[in-house]
Amino acid sequence: MPKKKKRVIKKKPKTVAKRKNKRTVKPKKETNLGWSVFSIVLIVAIIIILLVSLKPCDNCEEENETIPETPCEQRGFECMDSCSGDYFEVDLACGANKFCCEYIEPENNECKQEGESISVGEECCSGLEKASDCIPNVPCPVSLRYCILCGDGVCREHENRLNCPEDCNTSVCTNSGGFCLTTCPTEYGYAEVDLQCDRGVCCMAN
């Protein structure tokens, strides 16, 4: 018998499938919400602290009032319209139209009578007042004063139209701008004029 021919089946070569390059997508990182909230809270706290520190002072006016503003006040004295009574003028700057005044408490209970000179720390007796009999342009110690009885209608010694106008503006001399004095201080520009005075002579500034 003839031999059967074997059928040879050719196998196709296996083809290797090309792998496609797949793009790998990295997963997104999750944001740390905890740290973000903490940062916001911290920033808000810092802003609040800054606002509180910049808050205007409630007592600024009171503090400013107590701060001395003039050389007079810095030395513990007072700025006043005029120095009278137990207040004596001090040569320190005090602002426009103000005088630097020092209060000096009387040292004893002994009082000075009318017409007597009074020094720092002394007092006039009841019903009298301290006054300086200085007149313009004539040197006069500010601390030296006299006890006068002003208001009784009589222009006495140490009284003049400046320190006691109610008693010393009654004469022709004083009504004309002069001063009734014992003698005229001619060396300081005053001359005697023939005008009626309650006492002494009439002195006018040249």
What does this protein structure show overall?
- The strands form four sheets. The protein has a three-stranded antiparallel sheet, with no helix packed on it.
- The radius of gyration is 51 Å and the shape is elongated.
- It has helices spanning 33-53, 60-66, 71-74, 165-168, 172-175; strands at 78-80, 87-89, 99-103, 111-112, 117-118, 123-124, 129-131, 145-148, 179-181, 190-193, 201-205.
- With 206 residues, the chain is an alpha+beta fold.
- The relative contact order is 0.07.
- It has five helices and eleven strands.
- The model has no long low-confidence stretch (mean pLDDT 78).
- Strand 10 and strand 11 form a beta hairpin.
Strand count, sense and barrel status of the largest sheet are: 3 strands, antiparallel
Overall strand count = 11
The proportion of residues forming helix, as a percent range, comes to 10-25%
Question: Helix-strand pattern, N to C?
Answer: HHHEEEEEEEEHHEEE
